[in-house]
Specification:
The protein is of the alpha/beta class. The protein is built from 7 helices and 27 strands. Bound molecules: adenosine monophosphate (AMP) and magnesium ion.
Length: 415
C-alpha cells in the first residue's frame, strides 16, 4: 500500500479507496460458529454452504391454471378436442394417467399428471360438455415448472458467507431446512471520548454537548446484528482511556471509538494505543471524516472514528460497515453501487478530496434528480436525517452547477 506523506509526516494521507483496501485486505471472519433455527438466521452469516436436501420444486408442476395435455395429441394448425378426465389441484394430485385424446383440468402448482407434458392455459381453451377445445399454436412443454428448476437436489442452495435476509429464510424453508450453521455474532465494544460530552437524561452544563455518537453507532451496529458492549463516555484522560481500551480489547472483537483522533488529540492517544497494539492514524482524503485510526489493540481491531457526528456516519458507512461484515464472515461484496443522477443544487468543491454530501433523491417533472439535503456542516445531523443518499464527488472534481450529473450512493436498499 502506497502512503502519501500528508501535512504531518506521522499521519499518512490515504485516498478513500486506499483506506478501504488497506482495511479489508487485513480482515477475515472471526472464529466461532453456532447452529440456529431458520428464523434466528435473519441477519446472520452462513458459516457453511447449505446443500439442497431435495428438489425445489419437488415435482414437475403447472405454472398456470389450465389443462394438462399430451402435446403429441394436438393437431398442428387446427383445434383439438380432448376429453377431460379429472382435475389436479395443488396438494391434491390427479392420480390417474392421461391417455391418448384426454386432458386433465389443472390448477397452478398441481403436479403434472402422468402422461401429460404440456399445459394449455385456461384463457385460450374452451370447454364444451366434457371436452376441452385447444386452439392451434401450443408449444411442447409450455407452462411447466420443472422439478429442481429452483434448487436441484445436492446442489449448493446458499453459499458460505451469505448473510441471510428474508429471501434466504424463505429459500431455506422451501428446502425444509430447519437449522443452519452461522458465524457467531461479532462482539463490538464502543465508547465516545471527550471531556465535553454529557449523557442524555440530565441538563447540559455550559460548554457540554450531548453524546449523540454512541446512539448513532448503537443504531448502525444493531442493524448489522453485532453483539454490543456500550462502554459509555470516556474522558480525555490517558489513564481512563487505557482502562477502557484494555477492557474493550479483552472482551470484544472490535473496538469502535469516536472523537480524539484529530491532529492534536491523536498525538495524545497515539502513544497509548501503540503501546497496547499497533494502530495507524490516517488522514483520509475525504470530507467529512478526514482523520481516522485503524489497527489492533490487544486482540481486537480498532476503528477510531472522528468526533463530528456526520463524520462518524460517513466513516462508518464508507469504511467500517464492510469491515464488520467481513469480520462477521460475509464473503466479499461488490462496492455499493453509485448511480449517475442530474443534480439540482449548486455545490462548491475544491479538487483534492472525495466529498460525501447529504443528498435527497426526488422525482420532479417525471425525472429523478438529486438536491442537497440542507446544511452540510459535519456536525449537522439534521441534514443526515433528511437525506436519502450521499452525493459522492470524486477527488478530482470541482464545483457542481445545476444540471450537472453527479454520482449518488443510496442509503437504503429495498431488501
Ligand atoms: P473531536 O474529534 O474529538 O475533536 O471532536 C470533533 C467535534 O465533534 C467536537 O465538536 C466534539 O464536541 C464533537 N463530538 C465528539 N464526540 C461527540 C459525541 N460523542 N457526540 C456528539 N458530538 C461529539
Ligand atoms: Mg474530542
Amino acid at each position: 500500500m502506497e502512503q502519501k506523506t500528508g501535512a504531518s509526516a506521522r499521519t499518512p494521507s490515504l485516498s478513500a479507496d486506499e483506506a478501504r483496501s488497506a482495511i479489508l485486505d487485513r480482515l477475515a471472519a472471526v472464529p466461532g460458529r453456532e447452529r440456529v433455527a431458520v428464523r434466528s438466521a435473519l441477519g446472520r452469516v452462513l458459516a457453511e454452504a447449505v446443500i439442497a436436501p431435495c428438489n425445489v420444486p419437488a415435482h414437475d408442476n403447472s405454472a398456470m391454471d389450465g389443462f394438462a395435455v399430451r402435446f403429441a395429441d394436438l393437431t398442428s394448425g387446427a383445434e383439438t378436442a380432448l376429453t377431460v378426465v379429472g382435475t389436479a389441484f395443488a396438494g391434491k394430485p390427479f392420480s390417474g394417467i392421461v391417455g391418448a385424446g384426454q386432458a386433465v383440468r389443472i390448477m397452478t402448482g398441481a403436479p403434472i399428471p402422468q402422461g401429460a407434458d404440456t399445459i394449455v392455459v385456461q384463457e385460450v381453451a374452451r370447454t364444451e360438455g366434457g371436452q376441452v377445445i385447444v386452439p392451434a399454436g401450443q408449444r411442447a412443454g409450455q407452462n411447466l415448472r420443472r422439478a429442481g428448476e429452483d434448487l436441484a437436489l445436492g446442489g449448493v442452495a446458499l453459499p458460505a458467507g451469505k448473510r441471510c435476509g428474508p429471501a434466504e429464510l424463505g429459500l431455506l424453508a422451501s428446502l425444509g431446512v430447519a437449522e443452519v450453521t452461522v458465524h457467531r455474532r461479532l462482539r463490538v465494544a464502543f465508547f465516545s471520548t471527550g471531556d465535553e460530552l454529557a449523557s442524555i437524561g440530565k441538563p447540559l452544563a455550559p460548554g457540554e454537548v450531548y453524546d449523540s455518537n454512541r446512539y448513532t453507532l448503537f443504531g448502525a451496529l444493531s442493524r448489522l446484528g453485532c453483539e454490543l458492549l456500550d462502554m459509555g463516555v470516556v474522558r480525555d484522560d490517558p489513564a481512563a482511556l487505557e482502562t477502557a481500551f484494555r477492557e474493550a480489547s479483552a472482551s470484544a472483537d472490535v473496538i469502535l471509538t469516536s472523537g480524539g483522533v484529530s491532529v492534536g488529540e491523536a498525538d495524545f492517544i497515539r502513544e497509548l494505543v501503540n503501546r497496547l497494539g499497533q494502530v495507524a492514524f490516517w488522514k483520509i482524503d475525504i470530507k467529512p471524516g478526514r482523520p481516522m485510526a485503524f489497527g489492533r489493540v490487544g486482540d481486537a481491531w480498532l476503528f477510531g472514528l472522528p468526533g463530528n457526528p456526520v463524520a462518524v456516519l460517513v466513516t462508518f458507512y464508507q469504511f467500517v460497515q464492510d469491515a464488520l461484515l467481513a469480520l462477521s464472515g460475509v464473503a466479499p461484496l461488490p462496492d455499493s453501487p453509485l448511480f449517475e443522477v442530474v443534480c439540482d443544487s449548486v455545490i462548491r468543491k475544491q479538487p483534492g478530496r472525495r466529498e460525501y454530501l447529504r443528498g435527497r433523491l426526488v422525482r420532479r417533472g417525471g425525472k429523478q434528480i438529486v438536491e442537497l439535503a440542507g446544511a452540510q456542516g459535519s456536525g449537522i445531523l439534521r441534514s443526515m436525517s433528511e437525506a436519502n443518499c450521499f452525493i459522492v464527488l470524486s477527488e478530482a472534481g470541482g464545483d457542481v452547477a445545476p444540471g450537472d450529473t453527479v454520482q449518488i450512493q443510496l442509503f437504503d436498499g429495498l431488501i
